[in-house]
Amino acid sequence: MKKEKKINFLFFLFFNTNVPFLSYFIKKRRLRFLRGIMRGHNKIKKNNKMNSIYSLLDAIEKKVFLKSNNKLSPLIFGDCSDQAEIIFRQYLFSRTAYFSYVSFVKSLFYHIGINSKISCTLPIEWREVVEEYGFELNHIKCRLYWFFYIFSMYCYGVFEIIRNFLRSLINIIKHKNVRTGKYIYFYNLDISNLPKYDSKGKNYDIISWYTQLNSNAKNYDTIAHSAEQTKIINIGTKRVINLSSPYPLLNNFKQLIVYFLWGFKASLFSLFDILRGRWWNALMLAESSKLRIVKLTNPNLLAKEYLFHNSNFAIRPLWTYQAESYGSKIIFYFYSTNIRPRLYKNEKNIPFPIVFNSSNWPNYLAWDTHHEDFLRKSTTNNPSIEVTGPISFQNYKKELTDLPIKTIAIFDVQSFREVFRKTLVELSDYYVSQTNEVFINELYKLIYELGGTIAFKKKRDIGKLEHYKYRKLIDKFKNKPNFIIIDPTTPAHQLIEKSKASISMPFTSTALIAKHLGKPSIYYDPIDVLDKNDLASHGIKIISELDILKKWLSNILN
Fold this sequence. Notes:
About 40% of the residues lie in helices and about 10% in strands. It has 19 helices and 14 strands. α7 runs antiparallel to α9 (about 255-275), α9 runs antiparallel to α11 (about 285-295) and α11 runs parallel beside α12. The longest helix is centred in the N-terminal third of the chain and has 36 residues, at about 140-175. The chain is globular and about 75 Å long. The termini are far apart. Mean pLDDT is about 90; it is low at about 1-15.
């Protein structure tokens, strides 16, 4: 029997669910939505208006909702009420404007594509900004969507309060507290980010990297992480363990009663505030429930350091403000520095990436002084920044074998399917299959002629999101002589260490890793459109001319 094809429910691009009987209609509606997005994206590109969309998002992000804290409740925001406006603005922006599955950007593209007024989840303050940029809105639908969104967030908040209450109750009854001693906690990791259990070679994971960098690591008893279904790992005298929650649950009935009374009061208060227009309390109710757990916790039971990476840079959890006030150090680190738009020839300036203006992480780990300078210019909270060099993040599934002596490591950025790429606000069409084709073909021709070998590693495995032309391009090279395809999960550090030099597509972070390891490193711009003085290059040379590239390769391979 033929298996029923999975379809995308509620138009999400990544979430597939079988819906018997309704599948046909849902799929048809989803395809109509995606076609509308693509048409809208194409219209904006054709009229050179993508910069305007980027500016609109920037204006939305910077729109201040409240000029005083009188309407911000300490019951919800705790001791960080003085920062509450930027906290809930940051949270709302990431959940509705750009990063969510059904975001304002997708709705904007869709309604431009079908020539209709925009109707999506936006508060009145943001709708005013959208109209200032010349877009028409269906205010009735927007208000309706907005009300249902806030009410759903309220329900989610009540659910989180109940869930945390029950989890803490079970914890008290079963006495399940884990003895950690002094510990640090790595947030949002998976098994690939952990040290190898039985590795005799070098580890390239974030935990191994950080314990080697941080001289204070010797003062900790335990290193904790969020990766599930993992064994306890020993690094010297330290244990590496999984903790399902970054903060301890309540461990006595007195705390539980106080939490219950707070949850009852906060639920009623937030519901009442929806009716009088103070929606931010309902929006943050779920986050507030976690903050309240941390507030009731003994500060000595919290991690001394919490580390977050740039997959979740848009939202700083509310509970981290309370943990910080208790003495925990909140650190944000990058596993990649390819985070800013590229500067093209004859362009004078480009905007900073969205979300950084409202970002308020207190401590950053930067790769180099260029990265540090970027963070200082794009953030507004005067954070502490430590320059550490390139950050190792992911371990290998299997050991990389030795490579031929004349091996050049090649790193590109694989192209996405059009249906996904056109849901994004891209200021340029650089990372497309045509660029990849020129990049790989020209490098292979030159390196092969010079007797060298290419060790090719794409950025990551993105599955069905990968453009079919890109997939066909890589398949074409699988059986080519002097062309080795490296598993995407192989750490870039490990591949570069075994190579003679490195060539990267602008502006992937691998070029900085090679430079740090003392290997010759360049960026290759195969279509010759980028400004060679772009600060995003971090001072690494950009080559676009084939004769210069050939000379550079000759000096290395001969």
